Amino acid sequence: MQGLSLAFLIGAIAIGFFRKINVGVVSIVLGFILTLITHGKMNVLFAGFPTKLFLTLLGTMFFFCLLQENKTLELLSKKIVSLFQTRPFLMPIVIYVVSYFMSAAGPGAISVQSVMVIFAVSLAVQMKASAILMASMAILGAVGGTASPIALTGIIVTDLTAKMNVPGIATPVFYGVSLVNFLIAVVFYIALGGYKIKLAADIGNETEEKLNGQQKICTFALLVLVILVVIFRLDVGMVSFSLAFILMLLKAVNDKKALKLVPWNVLLLICGVNVLMNVVKNVGGIKLLANILASMMNEHTASALIAATAGFMSWFSSANGVVFPTLIPTVPEIIKDVGGNVKLVEMIIGIVAAATVAGVSPLSTGGSLILATYAEATDASAEVQQKMFLHLFALSFLAVLIVVMFALVGGFKTFSM
Known about the structure:
Elements: H1 2-19, H2 23-37, H3 42-47, H4 51-69, H5 72-82, H6 91-104, H7 108-127, H8 131-145, H9 152-163, H10 170-191, H11 213-231, H12 236-249, H13 255-261, H14 264-283, H15 285-294, H16 302-316, H17 319-327, H18 331-338, H19 344-357, H20 365-378, H21 382-408
């Protein structure tokens, strides 16, 4: 039954990838079938739905969709970046930094990518600079910041580790992911010739556009969110719902349009996989997966191999919805089997870092957004699109490889002390 439950988990990912069906839907159905086959109780199936996580993610996403819909996020980003248009070699750096801090402040990679990648590609086209350089820096910044304790991935990691009775792990994970993400950004900047950009950037009169009254209210709400969550440690989901409600009362946003921007498919994916994972865990499939991974590891290679596994899985499935709920619960069992000086924090940092940086891949949301935006902006031929596809995948492979090598030399052990 352990092997069967693990086969169901792998099957859910495979069906979702090859048939282009939301893995969350597949997971719920397979979870139901697995419960019947194993003669399990239906309350185990229903208990797998992560109510708190769902409300936290929905509140956060909805709040930032409101700010995205009325162009507040976009205009703030353009104003910050436009300050450096006379020093174009700084532009990729600024895009990275802005994406990182925007993502870390709450919305996470999904919301930030949708704004910053489009802006980065259009800016690169105007500058006649590398669109891959500019957009990949936006993605790296976004996925680096999303490990923040108040952002999407950080919230998921906190929720998963809380179920493992390991509190207070989110902050060291954020620091570790941020460090290796920054190193990858440096490599990308040098390898793609960011320092060689010489042409001044002319991003048009839109950077001179001022925030209107509604956008000023939204900007203030964003500042309040950061203060209440970071300083006063209030729940980010409930604060987001509350501020969204106030913005709607003040008629500063269009909630109907914003609701359409909420990535419901992502929410369904994350919650659906959690439902299946609870059944798999109850049957013993997670323990079996941990034993299989542990059999290939020793104390020196454990964090590197788990990072490589996470990166590989992330190329074909969602990091937040599939990779983290699948791999993070296996870590305690792996450590128990491997023994030695392996630390839980370093293993989880490796998982999160590798799975997130793999997002540059054209098979992932971020990479595919680069490809689509560039094709639309330049009317690129099929041949050019194919070359860009291969280029993006090669960069994604390089990013994951850097994480694996960093883990192999013990780079994440510093955050485990």
